[in-house]
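Lab meeting, item 3. Inverse folding demo.
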C-alpha cells in the first residue's frame, strides 16, 4: 500500500514550542515506518533542565495516532499540556 499523506510536523513542533516555552527548549524528530508501512515519526520534546518526552506519531486510516513512549522529568500535567498543544497543531497534508 502506498501512502501519500504527510504531516505539517515542523510547523506543529514550532507552534508547540512557541506556545510552551517554559516546557520545551528544543524538539527533534526522525521518520520511519510501522511494520504495516504506515508513516511513523518519533518526536523528542526536550526541556531546559534535561526533561524529555518521546512521542510516536502515525498516520493510520486517515487519522493521526499519537502515543507517549517515554517521559523523563515532566509532570503528568506538563505531558498533557504538551500533548494537547501538539495535537491541536498537527494536520495531515495530502500530497
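The presenter then showed the designed sequence:
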Amino acid at each position: 500500500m502506498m501512502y501519500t499523506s504527510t504531516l505539517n510536523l515542523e510547523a506543529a513542533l514550532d507552534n508547540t514550542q512557541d506556545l510552551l516555552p517554559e516546557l520545551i527548549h528544543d524538539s527533534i524528530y526522525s521518520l520511519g515506518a510501522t511494520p504495516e508501512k504506515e508513516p511513523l515519526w518519533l518526536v523528542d520534546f526536550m526541556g531546559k533542565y534535561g526533561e524529555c518526552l518521546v512521542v510516536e506519531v502515525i498516520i493510520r486510516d486517515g487519522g493521526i495516532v499519537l502515543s507517549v513512549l517515554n517521559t523523563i522529568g515532566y509532570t503528568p500535567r506538563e505531558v498533557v499540556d504538551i500533548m494537547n498543544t501538539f495535537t491541536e497543531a498537527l494536520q495531515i497534508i495530502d500530497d
